[in-house]
Amino acid sequence: MGSSPGKKPAREGFVDDSDAVRIGCVLHHTFATPFPVGGVAISGYEMLKALAGVRSHEHREWLPIVDNSQNMPELEQAMMDALRRHAGAHGILIRGHGLYTWGGDLEEANRHLEAILVCATGPGTGRSRIR
Fold first, then answer.
1. Lower CB density within 10 Å: C or N end of the chain?
2. Cα distances (angstroms) measured from residue 126 to each of 43, 57, 117, 121, 122
3. Number of domains in the chain
4. CA–CA distance, 29 with 31 (Å, rounded to integer)
5. What confidence score (pLDDT) does residue 31 get?
6. Beta strand pairing call for 60-66 and 127-128
7. Is 11 part of a structural domain of the chain?
8. Is residue 61 part of a domain?
9. Which residues contact 40 (CB under 8 A, 6 or more apart)?
């Protein structure tokens, strides 16, 4: 991947604060779906066991949502605040932008991304508010 002339690549500043979450890789997926206020709960899917530390489909994954902003320090602060409040989250949603998820390495981050996407948007008997 290259960058466009005169353009700076995005900087996910929330990854710099190692007190909140330890990560080696961050992945992003764009969502066009409007998000509810506050966050999205996902539960009832076997696929949730693909998330690090999750051992049961009865797990309830909470994805906090923060409002998008072009003010990067403000957006980073909102993301860090949300991750501090929901330290066990495996992802965060940015309203009007999409999903960020992470892992200790690319393989784990990709596994988290796939699990969240399948559980949050796919058909099945689980429960999610992203539809």
1. N
2. 6, 9, 13, 10, 9
3. 1
4. 7
5. 76
6. unpaired
7. no
8. yes
9. 62, 63, 65, 93, 120, 128, 129, 130
Structure tokens at 73: 């320090």
Is the overall model pTM greater than 0.90, yes or no?
Answer: no
Separation CA 47–CA 78 (nearest Å): 28
Quote the pLDDT of residue 35: 73
In this predicted structure, what is the pLDDT of residue 57? 86
Q: Which two tokens stand for residue 77?
A: 């602060």
Residue 31's domain comprises 21-128
Residue 15 covered by a domain:
no
Length of the chain: 131
- Extract the residue ranges of the chain whose pLDDT is less than 70: 1-22, 32, 122-131
Dist. CA 67–CA 69, nearest whole Å: 7
Q: Is 14 helix (H, G, I), strand (E, B) or coil?
A: helix
The most distant pair of C-alpha atoms in the chain lies apart, rounded to whole Å, by 48
